[in-house]
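User: Quick sanity check before I run a bigger batch. Here is a single chain. Can you write out its predicted 3D structure?
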Amino acid sequence: MEEKKMTVQEKNVVGEEFRDQRRVENYAYFREGDIDPSSGKKIAKLIMSNPDYIVYLDPDLRIEWAVTEGYEDGNKKYSELFSEVVSKVIELEGLSESVSLPKSQMMEYRTLLGAAIVVMLERDKPEIIREVVKKAEAYLKDRMAEKARKWYLISSFAYTGIYLLVMLIVLHAGTYDDLWSHILPGTTMGALGALVFIVSRSQQLFVNISAGQTLHFLESAARIIVGILGGLLAALAVKADILLGIFESSKEPLALLLILCFVAGASERLVPSLIKHVEGMMEKEKKEPGSKQEEKKPQAKNKRQGK
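Assistant: Done. Predicted structure follows.
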């Protein structure tokens, strides 16, 4: 039996009937759990509904909104910011997909975006509409910064813990001379100092989730390594008697050394100042032999004149 083909006119009639079935004249009676006939989606979270429009989140927490024919055909008109708001909401909604927010935060954020649609449909003042959009955008930026900061802190704790564990194994495994028995604990304290620096400055750290997880892991590793090297330099400076004046009056030189290494790992100034101090000593050593030679030259010249 051959299937009867529909004419274009018949298809248009069927299409009109289907649209009539999905048409809603009053959204004021819709509640959470209902099905929106215009989209066929379930209303998971109702943001706003009135006789003219509805704004809600579907079960996937996507923003859905619809208006009645009365809203479109009546004296009411869309806000002049319609295109701007809708495009921004679509952009921010897509951006939030890449952040992988927890469900509670995602619902809160998408509700803020839905509120921007509401004030746009209510035709509020442009500054009010833009303010709501800015609040939603700021909320997402804060959550993105929190996630990036979490990457940074977790990796910092992990690297420090691994280094601390390795040092404990190394120190427990064998005996070392006086130099290494000070350097190894010193570098460990430097790593701990770097970790304290990261934690204490976590709110001021410049992090950007768009840079990716790998870069944040590398940056935290670099900061811990710098702390280890700072502790190493401080320990060597003590053993080389560069900072002898500090330790002569101390009853516990090892404890003071460990404190210095910790500060070297945490401080951004101690290591550079220590390097400058060493450079100054080297410059002084270079100048002293030269100055003696310069003193000898005039003496030799005077002897010639005396002759």
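Residues 8-21, 291-297 have pLDDT under 50 and may be disordered.

User: Great, the batch can go ahead then.
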